[in-house]
Amino acid sequence: MPDFHQIPRPSDRRIALHVQPAAERALRQGHPWLYDQAIRKQSHDGVSGDLAVIFDRKGRFLAIGLYDPDSPIRVRVLQHGAPSPINVEWFEARLRAAAVRRAPLPAQGTTGYRLVHGENDGLPGLVIDRYAETLVLKLYTAAWLPHLRDVIPGLQRVQPFDRLVLRVSRRLAPLIEPYGLTDGQTLIGSAPSGSVHFEENGLRFAADVAAGHKTGFFFDHRDNRAHVRSLSSGRSALDVFAYSGGFSVYAAAGGAVSVLSVDASAPALEAAVANFALNRDRAPVRAARHTVRVGDAFEQLQQLSAEGQRFDLIIVDPPSFAKRAVEVRGALALYARLTRLALSVLSADGVLVMSSCSSRVSPDAFFGAVLSAAAEAGRPLRELRRTGHALDHPIGFPEGEYLKCLFATAPR
């Protein structure tokens, strides 16, 4: 166990909170967040990680959770409906339930997946990703820091590991420094000398768990990558916003004759090349011609169109365009623009894969924007399937639903 003695334990004195009627209703329905503006009465001030007990207007127990005075999400709810001690046993039970949900994955040739999906697994603000024998624990609130001494022993029993790496959100980085902690720090085991390796559906990948985006890889598209693999035989593929080449490798493994990976980050594309090399023992990957282009996705799509290039399979997996409600309209315009640009380089019998990872953008709004843009471009789409979250990314509350993906053809 790392030494967390410098992090004060939560106060034994619970913070009592009384909330607005709308918050009462949301909490009764199991919502995991209590916002600061929903609090109408508070017994006393607390520090990050203290336990807050929430009562209804009649003084009855509603929930208990982690208090965070530095966040508009003032309480991340751990337990709804009935009181319970929050201790080592409680955390282990939640971790074990999450692990049971993912139990089928290793048998499918997958040793890289999300072990704990935060709020959606009853542990709000805490994400744990598994990369074979390495676990990456990512925090989105400092309220978890005093409880890690209780969380980690349970994690060791539920999912034994050789290495545990700490990652934190950008906002948290300065808050953990006083405790001698840093983003990317190895808490248990030896620090990785480079990328760590794992498998997904039998394919091999490497990820920079200490400094890569998020925790190093995007596991949420595992099922969508597998479907791309099933559609790739004999096709030329274009992977836009390729990052480290997840979709690109799957396309090659599925028999694509060529794969072009496009991303604004040169290091990300270097990782994509490395991931191809990890799978060169597979004849289809070895046979595929893989090239990369560094640059802005919009500009690269325009350039490819100007060059007269065409592709039989195009995957467009952009980052979140809408982190706030006021950004939704702009995000929908960007999805529409990407659709038009992708269709300008899609062959007559090609397959288009478009995705969104913003919870602010509803499925109806996203699919509607893509379908409308295609129709206006004179290439109306024929839908093959719509997909959402994989098994290891369950949806536990409305804001937890973020991933949308459309597979379609656009006959001329």
Q: Your description of this structure?
A:
With 412 residues, the chain is α/β, with parallel strands linked by helices. The protein is 27% helix and 28% strand. Strands 16-15-14-17-18-20-19 form a 7-stranded mixed β-sheet, with helices on both faces. Helix 9 packs parallel to helix 10 and helix 10 crosses helix 11. The protein is globular. The chain starts with 14 loop residues before the first strand and ends with a strand.
Task: Estimate the mean pLDDT confidence.
Answer: 96
How are the strands of the biggest sheet laid out side by side?
Answer: 16-15-14-17-18-20-19
Largest sheet: 7 strands, mixed
Shape by Cα distribution: globular
Number of separate helices = 11
- Assembly form of the protein: single chain
Portion of residues in helices?
Answer: 25-40%
